[in-house]
Amino acid sequence: MKQITDLQGTFRLSNNVEMPYLGLGTYQADNAQEVIDAVKNALNTGYRHVDTASAYKNEEGVGKGILESNVAREEVFLVSKLWNADQGYESTLKAFEETLERLGVDYLDLYLIHWPVAGKYKDTWRAMEKLYREKRIRAIGVSNFLQHHLEDLLEAAEIVPMVNQMEFHPYLVQQGLIDFCNAKGIQYESWSPFMQGKLFDGKSDVFDELTGKYNKSIAQIVLRYNLQKGIVAIPKSVHENRIKSNADIFDFELSEADVSYLDSLDKGARSGPDPDNFDF
């Protein structure tokens, strides 16, 4: 198990960049005061990793939140993602500049291809490699790439993606994909670690024993599970109390048996689109 120490702890990427293993997700946070306050609250709580995307339409607000916080830009691991309509070589270069402008920054810590658009992602990756070599981005990666997408990309890639951001939670573990990424030196990262809230639906008692045993919430148990599996997690919240609660996971450790129990809940259940079958 990788050492899990505190809110500003990191996992080291293949190029030796340190990526904080707990971050703030901003999916569906609006571009106004909501996301500005969420980012400020997270950074002032101690988070040093903020994840956004062109498709979220809130990059401006994320940038303002960083600017208005008490934390310097260079201390924040800032992530954004290239949207599907912008894939392709020249269009990726253009979209990247537009993302920087919206965020009000001059570089990204991590830039991801949001989805594996057939016939486009190899040219897109060439543009990402160019931006990386020009030191415009500290690390480059992908999102929602299954093993066959990665294998196809790696046939043409000169640089192996440093990160693969996937839907991940106890009901969608995809251990084979995690193992493949680990073997290739690709850091696994989870979006929707709470299955877009479905883990809290109240109709299941599968977490009851663990929440009682560790005196922690389902959210805290699940986030700790992510980190102990070596997976970066970016829970989304706009509520200050939940942002703080999500970070309160460094005073306990799940046993190996309990990690295995959570793995055993896997049933291939997705809350988001299937990377092999999306039409956007």
UniProtKB/TrEMBL annotation:
InterPro entries: AKR, AKR5G, Aldo/ket_reductase_CS, NAD(P)_OxRdtase_dom_sf, NADP_OxRdtase_dom. The active site is at Y56 (proton donor). The keyword Oxidoreductase applies. It holds the Pfam family Aldo_ket_red. Coiled coil: none annotated. Substrate binds at H114. It comes from the Bacteria. GO terms for molecular function: oxidoreductase activity, acting on the CH-OH group of donors, NAD or NADP as acceptor. Residues 22-266 form the NADP-dependent oxidoreductase domain. The keyword Oxidoreductase applies. CDD domains: AKR_AKR5G1-3. Keywords: NADP, Oxidoreductase. The record marks K81 as: Lowers pKa of active site Tyr. Belongs to the aldo/keto reductase family. This is Aldo/keto reductase. It comes from Zobellia amurskyensis.
